[in-house]
Amino acid sequence: MDKVISADGTEIAYEAVGSGPTVVLVGGAFCDHTATAGYADALAVDFTAVSYDRRGRGESGDNQPYDPQREVEDLTAVIRAFGDRGFVFGLSSGAGLCLLAAASGAPIDAVAGVEPPYRVSEDAPPLPEDYTETLIELSSTGRRGDAVAYFMTVAVGQPPEAVEEARKMPMWAGLEAMAPTLAYDSLVHNKGGFPADQLATVTAPVLAVHSTGSPSWLVAATEATAKAVPAGESVGLEGGFHEVPPATLAPVLREFYLR
Fold this sequence. Notes:
Elements: E1 2-5, E2 11-18, E3 22-26, H1 37-43, E4 48-52, H2 68-80, E5 86-91, H3 93-103, E6 108-114, H4 131-140, H5 144-155, H6 160-167, H7 172-177, H8 181-188, H9 196-199, E7 206-211, H10 216-228, E8 232-237, H11 246-257
Parallel strand pairs: 3-4, 3-5, 5-6, 6-7, 7-8
Antiparallel strand pairs: 1-2, 2-4
């Protein structure tokens, strides 16, 4: 993987495929660059599609102290490794990071994202007031597995027995390695609260995408995001829980970015 140096000196690792205008793809919780690689491959025929390891994941560094604006600087550094400006696409809390970056003045010409997990409807799983602090405490005291379990049960709503089965799988070690970044995701997307004032400052066009296979609270979050930004639109596409297949999404993104 190639690397770029962010503003605070953190190394950010990335991979690029294709050629053309730059699209940087941003993963969500438990995502390194491999989580967006399929979307990058689908976009590569028309774009330079860049997947990267957000700080604290994969081959990227994790200089402290953490602040969401450091992730904005990371994304900016990746964009500028390919030119002055670019498009961005985010999955889940990665969509929240793209929106935060656009609101912060990052060199972004258009934002697309799948289901930023804001809690805007009554049927959304509520997060405890100390949710982020609990993740930090568990991760920083050697209880990374408990932090993963806490996220899976409290934030995602999975039953405890599903967590116990996951603990037996080979992927579990990778989840534990990224456990400290769960708090980062929470801070990036406003601890699940809806950042209406922040979104209102986003001047770039925004395409908010939801899956037909997702629960109604994620659909509501997507539609609320599109309404909160000045130049927003939402679309529902065929997919599974909290995901839309690259082959389905790529043509929609191509049309949106190249308008």
